[in-house]
Amino acid sequence: MRMILLGPPGVGKGTQAVTLAQAEQAAHISTGDILRAHVAQGTPLGKAAKEYMDKGLLVPDDVIMGLVKDRLQQPDAQNGYIFDGFPRTAAQAVALGQLLNEEELPLEAVVSLEASDELVVERISGRRTCRECKEVYHVKFSPPKVTGVCDKCGGELYQRDDDIETVVRKRLTEYHTKTAPLIEYYRAEGLLKTVDGTQSVQAVSQAIRKAIG
Ligand code: AP5
């Protein structure tokens, strides 16, 4: 499986990518997760990226493309990949096309998960993530058994710095102006499938599988 999951912040890209990647033994490539790992390690790249992320702005394209190139060359990606939260600009989409040609790993499908801004704000404001294993929960839709504690590893659950409502609104503006145009870009390439992201996690998962055949 070689695909992109497109969609606004909080629509459920990460939730779906994790299970799909496990089932297909494909690499789950989330540029947001890679950036957060740099932030947590305090690397120079992480320090620079945090300035953008905390404001809800996109990190510059050249930084992102360097990260993606390195990740795509790792062995697990040769078996397939699921991009989550990438590409996010026209420049990233064009650069990705060139990179995939060079690596001979052509894209098979682009799935656009769709939901209203109000729904994604509700999903993001209830999201909690494990500091240790990165498992994602929702206080209402998929709560942990014990508040604040990860079911899988017992780690502490936290709320992301960029999940406060003012920053989420800025992320949505960035999505609508810079990322949503990629829907038409990939439709023109004949790769686009759209899926209703407002359904339950399981129903979205089934709809993605149906869409990509
Ligand atoms: P990133 O980490 O990519 O964030 P995002 O795209 O804003 O997406 P999210 O992780 O917020 O949401 P998601 O769609 O994965 O939803 P999730 O599955 O967690 O990017 C963060 C920042 O990094 C960006 O703002 C930017 O600064 C930078 N960045 C990253 N990539 C970049 C790039 N390529 N270029 C430039 N900058 C970049 O679900 C959300 C919640 O809803 C969870 O609580 C979950 O449990 C719940 N949920 C999920 N599905 C359902 C469902 N079907 N029903 C009910 N609840 C559900």
Can you tell me about this structure?
With 213 residues, the chain is an alpha/beta fold. It has helices spanning 13-24, 31-41, 44-53, 61-72, 90-103, 117-125, 165-179, 181-188, 201-212; strands at 2-6, 27-30, 81-84, 109-114, 127-130, 136-138, 157-158, 192-196. Helix 2 (31-41) packs across helix 3 (44-53), helix 4 runs parallel beside helix 5 (90-103) and helix 6 crosses helix 7. It is globular, with a radius of gyration of 16 Å. The termini are close together. The model has no long low-confidence stretch (mean pLDDT 95). Bound molecules: BIS(adenosine)-5'-pentaphosphate (AP5). Residues 7, 9-15, 31-32, 35, 52-53, 56-59, 64, 85-86, 88, 92, 123-124, 126-127, 136-138, 141-142, 162, 171, 200-201, 204 line the site of BIS(adenosine)-5'-pentaphosphate.
